[in-house]
Q: What sequence folds into this?
């Protein structure tokens, strides 16, 4: 089905400025929580990431040294072919297995190659049927010993590591402000979530979706990123202007609405106990995608996954459950939860 026939989503566009300058904290917080309750996503304007900093990161993501390929033609989409290419050109060094387990460093996910690496990484059948055609470079905070960063060899892309780490910490600042707003909007003390986010066990992902035949995307032979929900407390996402992100319609499971690029906006999603929805989303062919050669343009996005401190026991947020709407999920440590989700997804 062409995306043009899909309704657009109800994701609200909220100006975060009045929260940051203190002129209308409560009003902004209420709007964010209302969009989260409705659809689990919100577009934030004036979020605190200067446009030139995002542009700089998009320049890095587009750097050819980070790419396996710019496009896959029809013939290339023979999965064995892709698989072989991915294995023949592992990103760098010999840390491939580590990289996949930790999901850090560069990963190329044109077909789940982890199937060959470790049976634990077998992914759900429906995802294998329409494999993701994407590749990503990921990093966390440099001091993280549990999941050490894996950088490109010295001399490759000078400045890249510093740019990633600077951006990582900038996003962390933005995260803390959004968590403050979220707490306020839920009727909690502004600092409520901060006590559980003292060490950013977060992940910055630079995502590249190579150009692929539109028809293969529409026929669901491949996808860009299959339907999933994120693992952490919130995700911040910068997307380029290509489009293709879709979120599940809260009123109709299995049906998706486009979340088109809004210039300057940061897309934020969250999740707890379904009151604040942890909405399933995916990336497909962009809206109104027509091109002379039948190929989608390449697409880039930069998600930043925010997690509670690994030692935190993740429980449903006060205010999202009561006697009539009991907790749907049992408390679990953040680390155990993330690892469980990674094992079942990656
Ligand atoms: O590329 C996008 O727009 C979404 C990426 C995403 O959902 C993810 O990496 O979890
Ligand atoms: Fe996601």
A:
């Amino acid at each position: 089905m062409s995306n043009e026939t899909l309704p657009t989503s109800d994701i609200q566009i909220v100006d975060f400025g009045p929260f940051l300058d203190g002129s209308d904290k409560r009003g902004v917080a209420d709007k964010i929580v209302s969009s989260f309750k409705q659809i689990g996503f919100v577009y934030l304007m004036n979020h605190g990431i200067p446009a030139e900093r995002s542009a700089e990161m998009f320049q890095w993501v587009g750097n050819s040294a980070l790419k396996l390929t710019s496009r896959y033609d029809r013939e290339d989409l023979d999965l064995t072919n892709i698989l072989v290419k991915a294995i023949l050109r592992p990103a760098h060094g010999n840390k491939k297995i580590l990289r996949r387990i930790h999901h850090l460093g560069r990963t190329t996910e044109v077909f789940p190659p982890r199937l060959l690496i470790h049976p634990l990484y077998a992914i759900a059948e429906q995802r294998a049927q329409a494999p993701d055609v994407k590749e990503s470079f990921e990093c966390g905070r440099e001091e993280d010993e549990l999941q050490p960063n894996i950088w490109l060899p010295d001399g490759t892309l000078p400045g890249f590591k510093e740019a990633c780490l600077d951006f990582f910490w900038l996003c962390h600042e933005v995260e803390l402000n959004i968590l403050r707003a979220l707490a306020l909007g839920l009727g909690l003390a502004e600092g409520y979530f901060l006590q559980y986010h003292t060490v950013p066990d977060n992940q910055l992902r630079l995502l590249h979706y190579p150009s692929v035949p539109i028809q293969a995307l529409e026929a669901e032979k491949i996808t860009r990123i299959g339907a999933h929900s994120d693992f952490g407390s919130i995700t911040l996402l910068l997307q380029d202007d290509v489009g293709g992100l879709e979120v599940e319609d809260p009123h109709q499971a299995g049906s998706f609405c486009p979340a088109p690029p809004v210039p300057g906006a940061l897309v934020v999603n969250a999740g707890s106990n379904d009151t604040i929805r942890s909405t399933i989303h995916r990336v497909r062919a962009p809206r109104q995608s027509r091109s002379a050669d039948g190929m989608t343009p390449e697409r880039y996005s930069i998600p930043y996954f925010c997690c509670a401190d690994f030692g935190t026991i993740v429980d449903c947020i006060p205010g999202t459950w009561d006697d009539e709407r009991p907790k749907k999920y049992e408390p679990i440590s953040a680390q155990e939860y993330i690892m469980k989700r990674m094992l079942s997804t990656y």
The pocket of 2-oxoglutaric acid (ligand 1) is lined by residues 205, 207, 225, 230, 237, 239, 245, 281, 283, 301, 303 (CB under 6 Å). The CA atoms of residues 7 and 127 lie 24 Å apart. The chain is about 30% helix and 20% strand.
